[in-house]
């Protein structure tokens, strides 16, 4: 008992000896802490923010915090701002004071870090991740451990409730780390697949101001997936404007070419208008010719009938003269004189009819000839036609143009082949009328001679001469009548066949009218094309400048994500991760460790 008491007294004495120095040390530590608080106002040269966000496997936000980093210029008290639910010093043990959104901290190191936790703060991007296996939509939990054909769809869009500055200026990179033991036949449209050791790394990139839509497909075995990572940084790369001198030169050539096409189509339109006018004239001339040939055909029967009467009269007179002159008296000669004069008058009327017919035919033929000649003789080659097809013109209009052009040229060529026959009709009519005029004059002369010499003539001699004259006249007239019948038959056939020709010309007229309307529309189109491409080089340069300005974010000035009051913000970055989809490993029970005793516990154990 005495020995135990001595030991207790010895320990107490030792403790009393150590206690003063312990108190002095604690006092020094307290004074050191107070010295840190008395450093005064500090300053920093720049501030960096890294925003960390955790999402569930489908992209819904679960947690967010910000790590703030200051480059200290002057140690001391610094004020920062942010609607944090809690803050934590990551540099030393100095306490951080928080008054609502006002954060006061004391920094003495060259770099100072602290963390602020956020609740209810959204990211600048809405993120959605969906999964399908063998064509069936499944939740991440349902996918776990399954085999089959996997499809992962990742969608990103602007969150309009957040400052658009980040969405408009930040490049979003999406990365998936895939175990090659689980994933095979990986395909990622609009993405890159690279080897990363035993794994495969798939990367997608979303440009500023753009929505993202990406699909990854793969064959999976015993499905698991690491976190999908989203990293957002400012798109600060500077884009140099490309040298488009050669391209602008080509665009100038294209602009000139469209202008030439428009000019050519304008000339084509004018040519088609002339063609249409010519075809219209052709139709009018054809109508006149058709009417004239119909009148000619209609009068042919009367003409033949009249000629047949004359032929019969000549035959009758010739036969009557074969009687003996002794059987004839003065009254018979008077009748013969009268008959000759009537016959001469009939031939004269026939000659007038033929002359009038010749004039009408000449007018119709002249109108037809002028109309045919008005069709342009443009030599449009097959190469020109193919070039017109390739010019982008309306296919239907070009088909009408080609069809009408070919029909017009065929009509012109056909007329050229029959022009000689048509031209021969007028002279033939004129010659026939001349023959009738001569026969009429001969009959009139015979009648005059017969009437003047009736009392003093030698009847036998005169009758013999008259008989011979009438026989010759009758014989010649038979030939004339036969030719007249052939001619009128030809006119009737021409009149019948020309109905089809005139119908074709009418269709041609309708076609050229439609063609002119189509050519006018075509010219309007090429005029619009030429107008829109006239300043094509300038338009191209403007588009290039616009594209460069759209993606060149080198002039972007960062701002704080958590508060507009924060100053000297040099960079703001986002690190976003989805929750991994993995099997839960069974936890092994570890042997309980003996709780470590404190100094006082060990001290008191000495007294037990």
UniProtKB/TrEMBL annotation:
Residues 1-26 form the signal peptide. The keyword Signal applies. It comes from Pontibacillus marinus BH030004 = DSM 16465. This is X-X-X-Leu-X-X-Gly heptad repeat-containing protein. Keywords: Signal. InterPro entries: xxxLxxG_rpt. NCBIfam families: xxxLxxG_by_4.
